[in-house]
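Per your request, structure below.
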């Protein structure tokens, strides 16, 4: 988390990193209300939403476990003066985030809770289709810097494939998003048709933390405190990384690119060391894996930077980055959320200009082909 400055810096105040036009891989747009989707939803589903609302694996609608001090997980200064929730006003986003921070491209990550985990899969597919069209109409077509993602619900695999094909024909989406908290771990074969199409279309698979999936957010059950729950994002991503690797997804789809978003990267070395160690002892159980887990992680996976674990000594962060790999990291701010990382101050460890350019721009350009 970095300090928030609510004005553009003068040129003589800018460190070198801020003069680099950045690719921000985690920008959150929000609906002003579900009425925004009416022009993209068939009448049948508009009426369904009006009469029945959402049927989710989460017990309460339109709620989050986050504290009142940060409603909607947002920065206090990110509430648009025109009304609506943070992230719902493009002009305000441009003025507060895109323009002053020289964001060359921002990848949209839509998080509204009712998108991914609808129990009625046909209704969920209609919502996802509407959200995908809304991203283009309300954001990407109004500001070409903003890039849309294809949101699909992986538990309705056939519906997800149809939506991927529809959006791919439009040709304006840069990745496929699935939820990290589905009914089953993401490595399971039932989800493989989605990965097959992602590889065939050369679209990265984006997996952003969030949602509930009907399960406790930690492997130990439901936590007592917000600060405790916030820790679970890293646990969730680590579990899905293990599932994808050990079930054999990168072995089966060697050209598939998988980007984990908002899970941080401080946990990666120990998780991968453990997988490698266990692979040596139990490799006869998983003969479909031809190489060590670490080799798949270094070839098929990328990680966005926010939230950055910040040890007291800068050299420790430096060592962590080197182990994960400079080429594996993609900068993300998480705008407009409360733990937003300001790109001018995000890395409190020495980086060369070449390394900064990779993390802030060229790595993402290579993955997403800007």
């Amino acid at each position: 988390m970095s300090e928030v400055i609510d004005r553009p810096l003068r040129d003589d105040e800018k460190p070198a990193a801020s003069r680099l036009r950045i690719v921000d891989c985690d920008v959150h747009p929000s609906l002003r209300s579900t009425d925004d989707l009416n022009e993209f939803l068939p009448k049948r589903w508009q009426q369904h939403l009006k009469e029945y609302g959402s049927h989710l694996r989460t017990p309460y609608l339109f709620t989050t476990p986050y504290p009142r001090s940060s409603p909607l997980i947002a920065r206090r200064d990110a509430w648009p003066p025109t009304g609506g929730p943070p992230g719902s006003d493009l002009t305000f986003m441009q003025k507060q985030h895109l323009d002053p921070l020289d964001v060359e491209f921002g990848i949209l990550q839509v998080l509204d809770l009712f998108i991914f985990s609808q129990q009625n899969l046909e209704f969920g597919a209609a919502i996802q289709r509407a959200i995908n069209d809304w991203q283009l109409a309300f954001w990407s077509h109004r500001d070409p810097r903003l890039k849309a993602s294809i949101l699909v619900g992986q538990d309705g695999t056939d519906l997800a494939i149809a939506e991927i094909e529809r959006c791919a024909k439009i040709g304006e989406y840069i990745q496929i998003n699935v939820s990290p908290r589905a009914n089953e771990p993401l490595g399971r074969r039932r989800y493989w048709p989605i990965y097959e199409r992602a590889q065939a279309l050369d679209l990265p698979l984006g997996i952003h933390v969030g949602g509930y999936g009907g399960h406790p957010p930690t492997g130990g059950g439901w936590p007592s405190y917000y600060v405790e729950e916030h820790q679970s994002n890293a646990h969730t991503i680590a579990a899905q990384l293990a599932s994808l690797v050990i079930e054999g997804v990168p072995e089966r789809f060697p050209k598939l690119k998988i980007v984990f978003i908002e899970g941080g990267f401080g946990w990666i070395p120990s998780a991968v060391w453990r997988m490698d160690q266990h692979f040596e002892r139990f490799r006869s159980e998983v003969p479909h894996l031809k190489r060590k887990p670490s080799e798949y992680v270094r070839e098929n996976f990328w990680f966005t930077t926010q939230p950055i674990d910040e040890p007291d000594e800068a050299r420790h962060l430096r060592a962590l980055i080197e182990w994960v790999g400079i080429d594996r990291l993609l900068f993300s701010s998480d705008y407009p959320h409360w733990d937003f990382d300001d790109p001018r101050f995000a890395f409190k460890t020495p980086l060369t200009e070449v390394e900064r350019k990779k993390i802030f721009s060229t790595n993402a350009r290579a993955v997403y082909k800007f």
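The longest strand covers residues 22-27.

Regards,
D.
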